[in-house]
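input
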Amino acid sequence: MSQMKEERGAILRRRTKHDDDLPDEIVLDIFARLPVKSLLRFRCVCKPWYSSIANPRFITTHLLNHNHHHGYLIHIRNIPKPSSGSSRSSGQVCTLTCDHTYETISVFRVPFTFQSGFPYFVGSCNGILCITNYTAGSKVVYLWNPSIRKFKRLPDNQFRNMTFGIGYDSQNNDFKVVGISRNFSKSNRPPEVWVYSLNSDSWKRVELGISLRPNVLYFDGNYFKVLPFVSGHLHWMFKMSGGQERHSTHMLLSFDVISEKFKQLQLPDDEGRGSCETKFVNSFKGKLALIKFESGAQAAQPHGVLCSIWVMREYGVIDSWNKLCVLSIENINFCISFTKDGLVLVQKGSLPVSTNGEIERKYKNVLIDPETLHEKEIGNEVDYHFDVTAYMESLVLLDGANVVSY
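output
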């Protein structure tokens, strides 16, 4: 027994010798493949590990190793206001689910509140959630990383009536939030465009750089949906009316987050015969997607709409627009997003019913397979305001400036 203790002590002594330690580059390579939760614990082991894990280069390497591990959806919903009648929101709750099975992984509160309006997702990029408030007043914008329990309020600006998007500048290892006026009038004034850089922690004004048609009203056509970040570009869909146009037309703007330049992308030529046409853009399996809604005689159900889905197979190549499918959807409230596997997530609403003298309408979320057209109802009945975006874990914001831990 004493001999075994001596041998075990010798092994422990050998393991503590620096000559027998693994090289630092191998240790960091192992760390870069581990989940965020493990790395947060390892920061407490020693000062060298603490500083190495917080190093921006390591955070970027860890991000690249895990960037293909998408497969989560995160939902946000409001908590009802307290009965006291306070005008301040009582908070919001997020639910993290697997986007394939839609099973709930965790439920947690949003660690900040808004004085007015309700929150909605600007987008999700490399583990960072960008959230702002839907209100006619001034905008407040947050970056939030739930996996490391940290958030950051962006510097205030006099933003009003702006639509935001978030993207990653891979050349400068920088996250950028871009805001553009939600509508701009016929006065030929260009829209306001602001770009926030996480590296500089500041906003700057940039020019649109695109000639606009005279006497035309432009207004946001993406209806507070998450703006797609595809191939290093953010995308906005604007609807145009007035001027020489007899009917409303659409304009698709693309913003390169590296060069900070706008360009206009041509939409596929697909004139429908239905009415109440709506178009917006999204991301489908990492590619730019166009969703078009039509109601009218073409819909199979009396309360249905036709949903045409187009995908740009090769980014920037107009001829690569390809019609993926056409869905006939009954009682749709709005299309939310696509899952990693390409399923369409929509919200449906029942017809209004009278309950105790009050008109009510209930909502549910449904996954639709665009190939088989199979529909699967997921979760329980949900509130009208239901926001969702893709999500992944990361270490971004771990030791950033003006970051709040909770």
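quick obs: The longest strand covers residues 233-242.
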